[in-house]
Amino acid sequence: MRRIIPKGFAVGVSNPKGFLIFAAVLPQFVNRSAGDVTLQLLLLGIVCAAVALVPESAWGSSPGRDGLRGLPRRLSANGAVSGTVMVGLGVRLAFTSYDV
Predict the structure, then answer these.
(1) Exposure b/e, 24-35, CB count within 10 A at least 16 = b
(2) What span, in angstroms and rounded, lies between the C-alpha atoms of 61 and 31?
(3) How far apart are CA 46 and CA 11, in angstroms?
C-alpha cells in the first residue's frame, strides 16, 4: 500500500483528462452571484473527487479487474471510446465561452 497510493496519486495528478473534465464541466455549475467563484470551483472539485473515490476504490479492490489484462481487444476498445469522449469534450470546450 505504501507504493500504490503515491503511484496512484501521481497518475491522477498528471492525467490531463481530469483537467479537461474540470475545465469543461465544473464552470457550468458556478453561480457568480452566489459568492466567490474560486471557492465554488474548489468545493465542486472536492465533491467530484469524493464521489469518484467510491467507485474507484471498488474497482481497485475488485478481483474482476485482473481478468481484463488478458483481453487486449476490450482494453483497446475502452481506450478508443474514452479518447473519443475526451476529444469531443475538448472540441466543446474550444467553442464554449464562460463568464467567470
Answers:
(1) bebbeebeeeee
(2) 37
(3) 18
Contact 29, 44 (CB under 8 A): yes
Helix (H) or strand (E) holding 9: helix 4-14
Please report which confidence band the pLDDT of residue 67 belongs to, taking 50, 70 and 90 as the band edges.
low
Contact 72, 6 (CB under 8 A): no
Residue type, 32: R
Residue 88: which of 25, 7, 1 has the closest Cα?
A: 25
Task: State residue 5 phi and psi, 5-degree precision.
Answer: -65, -50
Closest alpha carbon to 4 in 82, 16, 12: 12
Lowest average pLDDT, out of 25-29, 63-67, 82-86, goes to 63-67
From residue 71, how far is each of 8, 23, 67, 68, 79 by CA, in Å? 23, 33, 8, 5, 13
